[in-house]
Amino acid sequence: MNPLLNQSIFLIKEKVGMFKASNSYDIFDPNSNKHLMTSKEPNLGTFTKIFRFTKYKRHTPFNVLVTTTEGKSIVNIKRGVAIFRSDIEVFDEKGQLIGHFNQKFWSFGGKFEIVDKQQKPVCTLEGKWTGWDFKFNKDGKELASVSKKWAGIGKEFFTSADNYVLSINEIVPQDSVERQLIFAAVMVIDMVLKE
């Protein structure tokens, strides 16, 4: 696992674009404002690009690659076409499957079961449909949280760009699959629940 993921707090800024089909993000250390990573969809197909500009955008497949600023792979998040719910696969820097996000049917605000590659529960991601706050919970303990950081009315009003702050609790072990899956979930929140 890349040691960058051992930080406890990240600022994820969606890149601004008026008419963009792909999603891309810059990830910063909010304390130092250092640019740590980038996230993008490098290979969008023609039909996916077309559907991204329709009301079916939430149902399109995605393949999000998170890399260091030098281009070294950190995690890869993939989903096929989604009809009623999203089931997403997460891969590590070596392309090995490390877990899944299984969207719960009929959940207000969005709920995902985060499981490892053997489908064993890691934690649950839950949000409120009235807001932008999401919690990662396991056995009654909060492992991490994601909240929306407002970027200003001009940026928010004229684009679909969002900024998020991910805060990971110290009880989540360093260099763990849990940490990788929690980090990957931020892109999932934006693309599946908030687009």
> Which percent range describes the beta-strand content?
35-45%
Distance between the terminal alpha carbons, to the nearest Å? Answer: 29 Å
Largest sheet: 12 strands, antiparallel, barrel
Number of helices: 3
**Structural class computed from helices and strand pairing:** mainly beta
**Number of DSSP strands?**
12
Mind telling me the C-alpha Rg?
A: 16 Å
Biggest sheet, spatial arrangement of strands: 1-2-3-4-5-6-7-8-9-10-11-12
Whole-number mean pLDDT: 81
The helix/strand series, from N terminus to C terminus, equals EEEHEEEEEEEEHEH
Unreliable stretches: 151-160
Q: Strands, helices and their partners?
A:
Elements: E1 9-14, E2 24-29, E3 34-40, H1 46-51, E4 62-68, E5 73-79, E6 87-91, E7 97-103, E8 111-116, E9 121-127, E10 134-138, E11 141-148, H2 153-158, E12 163-168, H3 177-193
Antiparallel strand pairs: 1-2, 1-12, 2-3, 3-4, 4-5, 5-6, 6-7, 7-8, 8-9, 9-10, 10-11, 11-12
Describe the model.
With 195 residues, the protein is mainly beta. Helices cover 15% and strands 39% of the residues. The protein is built from three helices and twelve strands; from the N terminus they run βββαββββββββαβα. The protein has helices at residues 46-51, 153-158, 177-193; strands at residues 9-14, 24-29, 34-40, 62-68, 73-79, 87-91, 97-103, 111-116, 121-127, 134-138, 141-148, 163-168. It has a twelve-stranded antiparallel β-barrel. The longest helix is centred in the last third of the chain and has 17 residues, at 177-193. The chain starts with 8 loop residues before the first strand and ends with a helix. Mean pLDDT is 81; it is low at 151-160.
